[in-house]
Amino acid sequence: MEHIVIIGNGISGVTAARHIRKNSDKEITIVSAETDYFFSRTALMYVYMGHMKFEHTQPYESWFWKKNRINLKKGFVSKVHSNTNEIEFNDGEKLSYSKLIIATGSKPNKFGWPGQDLNGVMGMYHKQDLENLEKYAPNNSVCKRAVIVGGGLIGIELAEMLHSRDIPVTFLVREKSFWSGVLPKEESAMINKEITDVHIDLRLGVNLKEIKADKNGNVKSIIIAETNEEIECTVVGLTAGVSPNVDFLKNSDLEIGRGVKVNRFLETNIENIYAIGDCAEQHEAIGQRRPIEAVWYTGRMMGETVAQTICGNKIEYKPGHWFNSAKFIDIEYQTYGWVWAEPKENEARFYWEHESGKKCIHINYDKNTGEFIGINAFGIRMRHDFFDKVLTEKNSVNYVLEHLADANFDPEFYKLHESEIVAKFNQENNTNIQLKKKSWARIFSA
Amino acid sequence: MKAIKQSGLILFLIGLTLFTGTIFTGSFSLTSVEFDSFIKEKNYKNELIKEELQNAVVTTEPLNIFEFSSRVRKAYKVSNDHYEALIKKYDSEKNWTKKGEQYQYKIYGKPHSLSFELAKKAGLGFAAESPVLMWLLTFGLGIIGALLFIIPDVILLGKPGIKNNGIFLNAATNRGWIGWFAFVFLVGFYILLYFYPDFIVNWVYLVDPISQKLNGGNASQWFLYGFLYCTVMTVMAVRMYIKYRHNKYQILRTTSVLFFQIVFAFLIPEILVRFEKPWYDFKNAFPLDYDFFFKWNLDELLSSGGFGLFILVWGVVLTVVVVPVMVYFFGKRWYCSWVCGCGGLAETLGDPYRQLSSKTLLSWKAERIIIHSVLIFVLVMTGFALYTFFSGADQVLGIRTQTIQDIYGFLIGSIFAGVIGTGFYPIFGNRVWCRFGCPLAAYLGFIQRFKSRFRITTNGGQCISCGNCSTYCEQGIDVRAYAQKGENIVRSSCVGCGICSAVCPRGVLKLENGPEKGRINPTDVLLGNDVDLMELVNDK
């Protein structure tokens, strides 16, 4: 019987295992050095904040694995011997495979800052990072101040985490505005305000120069490159992005770029070895996507896809329309299609912001044809099905505005802003779009 | 703000301590005049109980409630033992006439109820003599303290939004010592209320003035419970209003349960009593209202003229027509978390404990067995009750209807719904009764599962499996198990509290009433992936 070995028990690897099991009787083993069981990495923050216990982040009870005949093996893989179809653990033990799926995810970036390996310096990615944070920042008497370096999603989450325990936070962001490489300036400004509103010390446009140690090798302070300002702190969070966790493959025969190079079938250069999730790097970017996508959803999709290929139904990885979501302290964010930080040449924008400064939508459309390209929604929930269909059918921005009531996904009784939004669009564009009443018939024709 | 919060806590604890301490205060005795009028009311046919009771309670000794109760129960026992012995004696002598005569001399009812009735007339001391002052020192301090503890959260919790910080780091909300203390207190309270009402007679004195204003008479322990229930719900509703002030669904729902509890379950029934009508809670549907078809209730309704008949018809229509039709359109939430009193307490007092419900598959299995057993139990019992009512026979197939009713009342009505159902909030989460025991919930659940427009829609592929929804589901539904598969949640046990949707950080869940078609949507591959793959896998 074929033995499928999956390195990594994150969303990609586990999704692959589940779908292989659905479609076959192959023997399946998932290897992980991090935890015994699959957990939701994106939920680690809630454990520190006390919203959940670690066990709540595990989507499956422990009997699930046995029932589905998925072997779980704890161990750190140090080598892949593709000539003998074996993986080797750091204790020398070997495990042979018929097919190997590499799903080892990411690791936090470190850019060679002086002091980056001191006690109290950490990322926020692995379960071990959480344990570390609990050790160095259990409360604000042990941790007088924390400094976070890097203004992305993990950075703001870490800031929110520390803030939940009343630990003063200084947040160093290299860009002139939070996440401005991804968000248009209006949304970015809204999040800047959300951060400073909760008294997080947000420093924009600055870089870390070095981290200083006390005599015991613990973090004492950091120095800002631009100003040479020294900020005393006991914890430093490094959240300047992630990169594929593929160091253990450096001496293998696998073709490695930044990640494990794969073709559209998620196959590596070696037969019977596949790579999925954050650690996979497409030879050619797919559509407007990046060659490496470190996103929960894409990891899951690759898992769904590679399982088909492994079970004999060879299929390309062909992700549908882009979507993503996040939560910035109290502001939820969803995006469907593409809304770039800067409009491209053929693109026009429509922006509406609620007077509270906590809600907005930003629509991107083709200024010549009127075709809808994408939407950012902050503080308003939108229906995924609706926008997926709009993108597939290449509907116009006018269509989207007419049907905003169908698109809304806020809880019942929430105050809706659709007529205000449509009125603003009409005024700016000299149009006469009429908002249609919500229709179940249309919503369910999807 | 923190100082206000802390002083609130101190005031609350003082109020709670005084309230608890009140039990032990006062002395109890009757004058012979009072005693005679009591005996007259009771119309006992036997002299022994009169003599025994008189010796027990007409005294100048300062008896506390426990001594008083013990004397009354002893008198009760002596008298009943005497006549039991006679019954046995005549039985062995086969003197049936004499034997039959003895039954009229026996005292029926619970000894603690007799003791409560007497104590209610016998009290001397702070609670009985200055109920208003003592009310202020117990209820008053408790309410003010609790509000001072809760209201600063407007500032302390930070800006509106989901603020579950520290819930699992707190001894009160993570089964720590405070949780266990609350558990012991609540369980103790229910045991006293149901089985030892005489011990808490001083508490009942405190609400006499309110009872007189409302229904014209003195309070019973049930009036005390009703008043306390409304008070606790109101105070804890303030907490809900603050905690979920960004969420209009929660605000409206809380207002609705509070309204139905105070107006329908408390004020209207008490006012009905004032006008000499039967006590009736118009929203309490059978089979949650399990004694609706008991003979005594039907007799009372039928003897109350047109109004009694109206209640009888309404009670039947409520269960047979209103409840299922509303569940079809809105799901069982319209009842369980917008109207019901049990749900109301769970959603206010119980909200801090919602995360403690077990989400394992094992508890889901246990839940289905237990709740459906209770439903069968209540239906069989009602069958017995109706047979007894129509035929006049007091037993069916050799089983006495009264016995079954007593067992249900004790095991389900008192122990399950009260002691376990509410007492276990701090340990097993806030919907223990609704999830495992309520026969009405089981009935509504069938309709919700098989014939309803309600569902919790999962928003395409947006789920990140974080687990907030499952953690905060009071009914122990593993919401994430559906959401992460892109599947709508259609579960009989869902009470539609809407918290899963509120705590979701990615906007994945929405409670909706929509067409039945497409309500249940099993998926393997989620929205956002290759369209061909979705068709291939999902449509097979």
List the helices and strands and how they pair.
The complex is a heterodimer of chains A (446) and B (540).
Chain A lengths: L2 E5 L3 H13 L3 E6 L11 H5 L14 H5 L2 E5 L2 E5 L4 E4 L4 E3 L2 E4 L3 E3 L12 E2 L4 H10 L9 E4 L3 H12 L4 E5 L11 H13 L3 E4 L3 E6 L5 E6 L5 E3 L2 E4 L3 E3 L15 E3 L10 E3 L4 E3 L13 H15 L12 E6 L2 E7 L9 E7 L6 E7 L5 E7 L5 H9 L4 H6 L1 H4 L10 H12 L10 H5 L2
Parallel strand pairs in A: 1-2, 1-7, 2-3, 7-19, 9-16, 10-11, 10-16, 11-12, 18-20
Antiparallel strand pairs in A: 4-5, 5-6, 8-17, 13-14, 14-15, 21-22, 22-25, 23-24, 24-25
Chain B lengths: L1 H21 L4 E2 L3 H11 L4 H11 L7 H28 L3 H7 L8 H12 E2 L1 H4 L1 H20 L2 H4 L20 H19 L5 H6 L1 H8 L5 H23 L4 H27 L20 H8 L2 H26 L2 H4 L4 H8 L12 H31 L3 E2 L2 E2 H20 L4 H4 L3 H6 L1 H12 L3 E5 L9 H4 L7 H5 L15 H5 L5 E5 L17 H8 L2
Antiparallel strand pairs in B: 1-2, 3-4, 5-6
In short:
The complex is a heterodimer of chains A (446) and B (540). Chain A has 446 residues and is of the alpha/beta class. Chain A has helices spanning 11-23, 44-48, 63-67, 127-136, 153-164, 185-197, 296-310, 384-392, 397-402, 404-407, 418-429, 440-444; strands at residues 3-7, 27-32, 70-74, 77-81, 86-89, 94-96, 99-102, 106-108, 121-122, 146-149, 169-173, 201-204, 208-213, 219-224, 230-232, 235-238, 242-244, 260-262, 273-275, 280-282, 323-328, 331-337, 347-353, 360-366, 372-378.
General description of the model:
The complex is a heterodimer of chains A (446) and B (540). The model of chain A has no long low-confidence stretch (mean pLDDT 96). In chain A, strand 5 and strand 6 form a beta hairpin. The two termini of chain A are 41 Å apart. Chain A is an alpha/beta fold. The longest helix of chain A is centred in the last third of the chain and has 15 residues. Helices cover 63% and strands 3% of the residues of chain B. A two-stranded antiparallel ribbon of chain B has the order 1-2. In chain B, strands 3-4 form a two-stranded antiparallel ribbon. Chain B has a two-stranded antiparallel sheet with strand order 5-6. Chain B is globular. With 540 residues, chain B is mainly α. Chain B starts with a helix and ends with a helix. In chain B, strand 3 and strand 4 form a beta hairpin.
